[in-house]
Amino acid sequence: MIQQTLQQVFGYPDFRPGQRPVIEAVVEGRSAAAIFPTGSGKSLCYQLPSLHLPHLTLVISPLLALMQDQLAFLARHGIAAASLDSGQSREEAAAVMAGVTRGEIRILMVSVERLKNERFRAFIRRVPISLMVVDEAHCISEWGHNFRPNYLKLPDYRREFAIPQVLLLTATATPKVIADMRDRFDIAESDVTATGFYRDNLYLEVAPVPAETRPRALVEWLRPRLAADTPQPTIVYVTQQQTAERLAAYLNKAGLAATAYHAGLDGERRDAIQRAFMAGETPCIVATIAFGMGIDKSDIRNVVHFDLPKSIENYSQEIGRAGRDGQPSDCLMLAGRDHLHVLENFVYGDTPESHGIRRVIDELQSAGREWELVLNRLSQASDIRPLPLKTLLVQLELRGIIAPRYSYFADYRFKLGIEPEALVARFQGERRAFVQAILDAASQARTWYNLDFAVLDRLGAERGLDTARARVLTALDYFVDQGWMMLESKQMTEVYAVLRDDLDAAALTDELHGYFRDKECAEIARLHAMLALFEADSCLSRRLAEWFGDDRTPERCGHCSACRGQVAKLPAAAPGEPLECHDLAALCEPFRQRLVEHGDAHPATPDRLARFLCGLTSPLLTRLKARQLPGFAALEAYPYAAVRARLAAG
Question: Do 417 and 449 form a contact (C-beta atoms < 8 A)?
Answer without folding.
Answer: no
